[in-house]
Amino acid sequence: MDRAIDVPESLAQPADPARVNDYDSFAEAYAAENENNLVNAYYERPAMMALAGDVAGRRVLDAGCGSGPLTAALRDRGAVVTGIDASAGMLALARRRLGDDAALHVVDLHDRLPFADGAFDDVVASLVLHYLEDWGPTLAELRRVLRPGGRLIASVDHPFVAYAFQDPRPDYFATTSYTFDWTFNGHSVSMRFWRRPLHSMIDAFTTAGFRLSVISEPQPDPAARELFPDGFHDASTKPNFLFFVVEVPTSATGSND
Q1: 10 Å Cβ neighbour count for 109?
Q2: In the prediction, which pLDDT does 253 show?
Q3: Cα→Cα distances 224→218, 220, 227, Å
Q4: Mean pLDDT value across residues 16-38
């Protein structure tokens, strides 16, 4: 699931657990917001596509596909893409974008994935893992559906940003949640994310049996400089997201099972 532009620290506040992260309630407004904005369209998605590289003919699972912009970009490069998301409302928008024949499924990443072992060459998880308190079961499932040599390409909130989000500062080394209201196009919604230190992220990948290949802190697309003169400097000088490429070892000797 893509994420909208960063929220000011002053907006951080408790959220109603019954309404938190309820993408179905604001799917249209959210999709419109991140379709062409700086953070998603000119920073996060280009970085994901650069890390994915040549995907022609590859079977790709877009885990947390939202309204489908990354799915569409991968498909345009020749990938055979399956999209999953917990929000039926977001998937309805993805189907509108991608067509009735698109492989889209309502799936919660807390649950077992409805795919065979080794079904995919790549998994992309765009700004979705930070919704999860425990990465372990989800990463185990993503590894299961990847073939040996397959890749998981993931982006998450940068741990420094998550740590600095509130004052007083939380315990950097603890896995803790934080909640706030997102406001876009006059629409305010309650959100919750989970922060964790960098070493915890890496440990979660290796414990699930992945081998770390790339850690990336990319720059926004240079085209954003003229389109977003007020935001470009901040986006290019402050951390926003952290990107990983982790691989399934091709032999048992390289596995952490």
Answers
A1: 22
A2: 47
A3: 14, 7, 5
A4: 82
Are the C-beta atoms of 152 and 145 separated by less than 8 Å?
no
d(CA 40, CA 91): 18
Residue whose token pair is 């741990």: 159
**3-class secondary structure, 96:** helix
Contacts of 72 (CB under 8 A, 6+ apart): 97, 98
* CA separation for the pair 41, 4 (Å, rounded): 10
Diameter of the chain measured on Cα atoms:
54
- Digit-coded pLDDT (tens) for 110-159: 999 999 999 999 999 999 999 999 999 999 999 999 999 999 999 999 99
Residue 43 CA to residue 56 CA, distance in Å, equals 22
Measured from the Cβ of residue 19, the count of other Cβ atoms closer than 10 Å reads: 11
Q: Please say whether the beta carbons of 2 and 69 come within 8 A.
A: yes
Task: Tell me the two tokens of residue 81.
Answer: 């893409």
Q: Which tokens is 148 given?
A: 């040996």
Contact (Cβ atoms closer than 8 angstroms) between residue 2 and residue 23: no
The CA distance from 255 to 211, in Å, is 8
Q: How far apart are CA 221 and CA 186, in angstroms?
A: 27
Residues near 195 by beta carbon (within 8 Å), at least 6 away in sequence? 130, 157, 159, 162, 163, 165, 170, 175, 176, 177, 178
pTM of the complete model = 0.90
What was the pLDDT predicted at 1? 53
The predicted structure's pLDDT at residue 252:
53
The pLDDT of 194-201, averaged and rounded, is: 97
